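PROTOCOL LOG
Step 1. Enter all chains and additional molecules of the complex.
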Amino acid sequence: MNKKGLLIVVSGPSGAGKGTICKEILSRRKDIFVSISATTRQPRKGEVDGINYFFKTREEFERMIDEEAFIEYAEVYNNLYGTPKEYVLDKLNQGENCLLEIDIQGALQVKKRYPEGVYIFILPPSMKELKSRIIGRGSETPESLERRFSSAFEEIEFVNQYDYYIINDEVSTATDTMESIIDAERCKVIEDIEEIVAMFKEEI
Amino acid sequence: MNKKGLLIVVSGPSGAGKGTICKEILSRRKDIFVSISATTRQPRKGEVDGINYFFKTREEFERMIDEEAFIEYAEVYNNLYGTPKEYVLDKLNQGENCLLEIDIQGALQVKKRYPEGVYIFILPPSMKELKSRIIGRGSETPESLERRFSSAFEEIEFVNQYDYYIINDEVSTATDTMESIIDAERCKVIEDIEEIVAMFKEEI
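Step 2. Run joint prediction.
Step 3. Record the structure below.
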């Protein structure tokens, strides 16, 4: 029996550490692949096209929207971000677990189309810590910093749209928790249970 | 904030290995206490009153039923089994996680009264293996053996009333999975999330 893969959607405010946790979980688990987003924003230092993102011009991105090629897309801080649909659904049907690290707007779009996904919200240990992490990243102007921080403040409210929250006190513990969530979700009783019961009974 | 404990209810057919898994998880985790059932059945070899069960006469047990002292009770193979209510609810309110290892009839009664519990069904690796485990236990007459086995066959259907299933191929792996379920359930977004968000916002 080919059990369908899990779509694991991870969001949280900037600076909560979702990127670090996702990187850590991918290094631990060979049964999870990461979906790569397309974006119109400029690459940050060290980011590579086709690895961190598919970097697109606005024109290219809009053509993909017209072709309904995204499972979700959103405009954030004047940049477009989107998740290519076919790639993700193919992998899930093949039984692979797919990790999507996306912003809240995107996650909620995915949830509408794919409610059976696993929606995880990463929280910082405190708002104070969140602010200092955003500052520490050093990639922001003072204006965008302020905008990001007040946006983070609002975003935290969205946790109640998610299935799970993880308080990221410490990356390795937070990653342990994410592993537990994935393992638990794999043995949830869902539609496939009838098939499992039938298999048991056939044996005799 | 005193987060309420989880009520973890574990069932499965005779011979699926639920007792062994529960023993193993209790030896690993200090944050889980086990609820002790009351029963009118005769103690098996090595079983101690107040540790494995509270052994009661039928008269004592029936008095407790009248006093509504059980979260659930059931008659199985002419013996009564029940879970003392006050003890369990007190511990949960104190934030302790409570493990109930009970038969399916009992579990479904608990689920009606306490739907926010975590309901886990233990499956044997195969029906063949289940049969040889029941025989191996050696505590059954041929007649009760046959009754138990055909009952196990029926019981498997009830898995769809549970939240999770664990296939008990190997005790330590099955226990790992149960630990993951418990850890995942601890960070589910439930009513308490509003309180957590409020705490975050207060900080600033």
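Step 4. Note key features.
Helices of chain A lie at 18-28, 58-66, 85-93, 104-113, 127-137, 142-155, 171-186, 193-202.
Residues 33 and 98 of chain A are 5 Å apart (CA to CA).
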